[in-house]
Amino acid sequence: MTLNPRLEYTPEVRDALQTGRPVVALESTIVSHGMPYPQNVQTAREVEAVVRQEGAVPATIAVIGGRIKVGLNDPELEQLGQDPTFGKISTRDLPHTVALGRNGATTVASTMRVAHLAGIRVFATGGTGGVHRGGALSMDVSADLTELSRSQVCVVSAGVKSILDIGLTLEVLETLGVPVLTLGSTEFPSFYSRSSGFTSPLTVDTPEQAAAVLRAKWDVCDAGMGGQPGQPGGALLANPIPHDAEIPAAEIAPHIDAALRDMDALGITGKDTTPYLLGRIVEITGGRSLVANIALVKNNAAVAARVAAAYCGMNM
Ligand code: PSU
Ligand code: MN
């Protein structure tokens, strides 16, 4: 594949893309704003190791000094984990960060955009953004959903956290035409919990089936013909947290409600809500939510690597 010359690759990622081997994109907001230091950097390294063990190449995405990085080396990962100049940047922020030569930690939305530019089709994260509670009035709907309808990338996540309105999030994804697949379950998962009370729109039994859906989407259903451009768009693969790491929904619900109350009391809104809530839930649960978070991210990385490998080995 020809490399996009506007992006900066690590040698490992460059080589994998050029030779058509499976690559898994990873986001950086989860490192800089989703977990405390030093667990964030350690988790980032472990997640990369899981991707490699499963036969794919990890590409953690961030903006450093205005340069869009596809793959970070170890000192860069460390810097991302500690340096407060790495703001949380969504798709709207990318051009400003690049033009002004700044640092930025990419969200699911902006990581999808960069993965799309790099030709990386599979991306692993923890949880995706969605419609915030009260979003029908506040219009706080994550750009992650918009980007899922625009970039040709499959996001593997543990579903949507119940800090959000899960029902409305699934409605918006349906409206945007985004396939939502849950791996091995008919119920859509809610990050810390395998259940959410919502049926998954679609189910697949294996990573290979998920890869086949992606092929059908991108090579058939969305494909252009006779000089006509294809339709853009991604997919969401929900991967329930492993049984032994799960915090049951009934147990986490009051903690999430408490965190939401604390947030309202502090008047926190907009892009600061998700980082605040993640940190507050770690405090309220005495670190238990962090343990669950780390377990589910690694699980998603393993599945994403298998999907990427199956996708690479498949042609329609
Ligand atoms: N959900 C999580 N962990 C996270 C995020 C979401 O469980 O770290 C981060 C991701 O980077 C996601 C972003 O893209 O928060 C969504 O933020 P917002 O709701 O402001 O779009
Ligand atoms: Mn928002």
TrEMBL record:
One of its GO terms (molecular function) is metal ion binding. Binds 1 Mn(2+) ion per subunit. It catalyses: D-ribose 5-phosphate + uracil = psi-UMP + H2O. Keywords: Glycosidase, Hydrolase, Lyase, Manganese, Metal-binding. It is an enzyme of class 4 (lyase). Its cofactor is Mn(2+). The active site is at residues 27, 161. Its EC number is 4.2.1.70. It comes from the Bacteria. Substrate binds at residues 88, 108, 142-144. InterPro entries: Indigdn_synthA-like (IPR022830), PsuG (IPR007342). Pfam families: Indigoidine_A (PF04227). Mn(2+) binds at residue 140. Gene3D superfamilies: Indigoidine synthase domain (3.40.1790.10). GO terms for biological process: nucleobase catabolic process. One of its GO terms (cellular component) is cytoplasm. Catalyzes the reversible cleavage of pseudouridine 5'-phosphate (PsiMP) to ribose 5-phosphate and uracil. Functions biologically in the cleavage direction, as part of a pseudouridine degradation pathway. PANTHER family: CARBOHYDRATE KINASE PFKB DOMAIN-CONTAINING PROTEIN (PTHR42909:SF1), ZGC:136858 (PTHR42909). Belongs to the pseudouridine-5'-phosphate glycosidase family. Homotrimer. This is Pseudouridine-5'-phosphate glycosidase. It comes from Deinococcus aquiradiocola. The gene is psuG.
